[in-house]
Structure formats: structure tokens, C-alpha cells
Amino acid sequence: MSDSHKTGPLKIAVAGLGTVGAGVLKLLERQADLIEQRCGRRIEVVAVSARSRGKDRGVDLSTAEWYDDPVALAAHPGVDVVVELIGGSEGPAKETVELALERGRHVVTANKALLAHHGTALAAKAEAAGLAIGFEAAVAGGIPIIKGLREGLAGNRVSEVHGILNGTCNYILTEMRTTGRDFADVLADAQKLGYAEADPSFDIDGVDAAHKLAILTSVAFGTPVDFKSVHVEGIRHVSAVDFDYADALGYRIKLLGIARRTDHGIEQRVHPCMVPKAAPIAAVDGVFNAVIAQGDFVDRVLFVGRGAGEGPTASAVVADLIDIARGRSTPTFGVPAAQLSEAQPSPMEARRGSYYVRLMVVDRPGVIADVAAAMRDQNVSMEQFLQRGRAPGEAVPVVLTTHDTEEAAMQRALATIADKESVVEPPRMIRIEQF
Ligand SMILES: NC(=O)C1=CN([C@@H]2O[C@H](COP(=O)(O)OP(=O)(O)OC[C@H]3O[C@@H](n4cnc5c(N)ncnc54)[C@H](O)[C@@H]3O)[C@@H](O)[C@H]2O)C=CC1
Ligand SMILES: N[C@@H](CC=O)C(=O)O
Ligand code: NA
Fold it and tell me: What's the predicted TM-score (pTM) here?
């Protein structure tokens, strides 16, 4: 980085003044003295851009130059850092970041979609110009997981990183379980609280968690960001009855992102999981995120904190700005972009573990025997079987769990079961992870 010698203020331009942008400006205003003490210089906002100029954001913008166009803001003269808080993998966010790098400005961004799709190319561009891209806010909000992995665990080979990476989903799953509230109602709450993405289907369909996982995988394993290899499932099919069965079986339901080095290559997957109630991650509720990393010297490390919202996300953005103001320098993903080593993705079919399956079946003799036969034919061993109550001739939920088996065999058994005339809804499956 080129700013270590400077003693004047670090001049920044902020593109995007929504939940995160307004939070950053508030933090910079309120903690100005503390920041100056910690990095020996002030951080000065010289230009801003957003869609609506007149909106009251609870911060003083009178000394910053206003830009309607965030891309033009990236070229504002005399700026050291462009802070991109617009969002989206393409369009103005990408153009702003690219122009900022071309003009020799460092970049700080909270935009995981952008980095999941273009992270390696942007890192290469930044590093070739001796510039930094700070993205602590892009993964797990306020948790310093990027610095934790990249700097704190730099002496380790990491074999696995997994965690709760989406605050909106964890908030929805927690509220549904503890209050019995409706999915849509809780999602509306998460949107009001500023947790959700502009398009909340990115949250509930697991895409946002997959963006974050792809970034984490790169930092953990020194590989190029490979979003397209992430297996992604969201939480739309988790229903109230699953929470009851999970509870009875000794589990909690969490949307997890899991990245592992396996014999088949690097596994990256995001999907709902049942985790034992005693696992530390099971107790991480609401908007809190958690990330667990396994390093060869440090062993297991658990990071927990708020994964979304104005304050925690602003905290991460400003930490990156302070790094730049101090002149600290680290390759974007921990290894110089040109040296990130390609790795084979491990296919989802190779996952080995146990499964929870919920079926809606017509309550009549022989149905369960058919289900058991489909499992037997694929060599899938059942562990538990639950049917609560009886309703002869009507559809009832039945639940089973399996012993460890291969995903490919499980998928074949489920396809056979789904075809049975007595199975009246698509089978719902949740993978069980024993951490
Ligand atoms: N809200 C959260 O808790 C977190 C958000 N993020 C990320 O931070 C970024 C910003 O998120 P939020 O603040 O929640 O979004 P937001 O929707 O509240 O704010 C977006 C801002 O960008 C501006 N904007 C959008 N399109 C524009 C355009 N074409 N030209 C100029 N300005 C434009 C809007 O006017 C608004 O000020 C996204 O990348 C998001 O994924 C990351 C971590 C947590
Ligand atoms: N929509 C995201 C915001 C933070 O990244 C989430 O809910 O986690
Ligand atoms: Na973070």
C-alpha cells in the first residue's frame, strides 16, 4: 500500500448511503477522535453518492461533494479510497470499483456478490497496481473473519471452514422455532431491520451465504474464488413441523456454509443442516453468525458475532479503512492473486453423512415397507423412524433418519420414494452434520 508515509487525512469517497453506508458515516463521525488516535490521521469523507439526495440519513453530508453517478465519484480528484456500498455483482458497483482501481484508489467494499463473481480478477488488478481491496464487511458482517483467517491463522493449513453465514436466514429460523411465527412475517421484520439483501431471495435461497462461502474458501485454502462450484439450497422448504421433529431428535436447524478439503477435492456447499443441540453453533441464534475454522496448529477456532445490520457492518468497513490509513498491506485473499492455486471441486454426490427425511404419506398398511425397501435397495441404513398419531386413509407426516451414507445413494432412494403413489408431497430432506 502506498499511504503508510502519509500524515494528512485519508480521503475517502463513499458510494451507497443505505443501511451500511449511513452506518459507516455515523461511525466515522462519532469515533473520529478514537480513529485518529489509532491510526495517527483522520479519515475524511470528501465525496458521496446515492440514489436520493434529499433523504435524511441522520448524518451531516454538507462537507462532502455529492455525485448522482457513483462511477463519476470513483474519479473524484484527491481521493485515496473508494468505499463501494451499493451492492450487486454487475452494473454500477462493478464499474465503480474497476474505475477506482484504474485511477489508483484503494477500494473497501461490503459487496460479497461482486467478489464471489469477480474477486480473483479484481484482486489481480488491485495487486498489480499496489492497491488494497478491503472486504471484511462482505463476510459475516461484524465478525473479523477475513482478518481472523488471513492474518490471525496465517501460520496454519486450514482443512475446513464452516458456519452460519446469513443473518436473515438465522433470524428467520430462530423466530420460526421459538415463536412459531410465519416465514413471510419474520422475513418482513428482517427487511425492516436492514438485514436482508435488496433482493431477499438471495438470502432465503442460500445465494448470499454461497457468495460468502466462496470468498471464505479462497481465503482459507489459497484457491481462486469459485462461486459456480458451490452447491446451494435455501430455507424455503423448512417447515414448522421440521423444527418439532428436529427438537425431538436432539437437533437444531441451521443454514450452514461448509468448505472442506476432501479426497475428491474442495467441497463447498450451502444448505439447511440439522446440528446436535450441544454443538456450539446450535446456540448461535437470531442475526448472529458463527464461523468455525480448523487449522493444523491452532486446532478449532470459533468466531461469533452479528452478521448483518448497520452497526456491525459499519464496524467491519471502518476496520478496513483504518488498515489502509495505517499503511498495512496483505494480499487480498492471503496469497498474491497470481499464485492462488486452482483446485478440483468435490461433487455434492460424494458427500458422506446422515440424513433426516420427512414424507407426507397416505396412512395405510404397506406404505412404510415400500419406503424401507427403496432405502434398502440403495444400501441406505435407517436409524430412526417416527410417525406421530394415526389418520387411516389420510396423509400424515412420517420422519426417518439414516446412518451415514453417500449422497448419491440417498438421492436415488428419494427419487424412488417420490414416485410412489402413496407419497403425496415431494420428500423433504435435511442433512445432519455432527460437528
Ligand atoms: N445490510 C447489511 O446488513 C449488510 C449489507 N452488506 C452489503 O453491503 C452493500 C450495501 O447494502 P445495504 O446498505 O444493506 O443496501 P441498501 O439498499 O440499504 O443501500 C444501497 C445504497 O446504494 C445506493 N444505490 C443503489 N443503486 C445505485 C446507483 N445506481 N447509483 C447510486 N447509488 C445507488 C442506494 O441509493 C443506497 O443508498 C451490499 O453489497 C450488501 O450486500 C454486507 C453486509 C451486511
Ligand atoms: N443479507 C445479509 C447481510 C449481510 O451480509 C445477511 O442477512 O446476512
Ligand atoms: Na466480517
Answer: 0.97
